[in-house]
Amino acid sequence: MKVEIDRELCSGDAICTDLCPDVFEMEDDKAKVIVDVVPPDSEECVRDAVESCPEGCITIIE
Fold it and tell me: What residues make up the domain containing 45?
């Protein structure tokens, strides 16, 4: 699984970084993905981040 963030839509709520800090981090008040491929043990928290993002700016690429 891969994941990407549309940084134009991101409002910097940091929900994704709170839920899944091994995959997301904040940079310049916007979230960014810090892995090329999501580790299998982080897939569930990535899905939680997608569902929890109020802007809907996180996309999973299977």
Answer: 2-61
Please state whether the predicted TM-score (pTM) of the whole model is above 0.90.
yes
29: Cα within 13 Å, side-chain hemisphere: 3
- Domain count along the chain: 1
pLDDT tens per residue across all 62 residues of the chain: 999 999 999 999 999 999 999 999 999 999 999 999 999 999 999 999 999 999 999 999 98
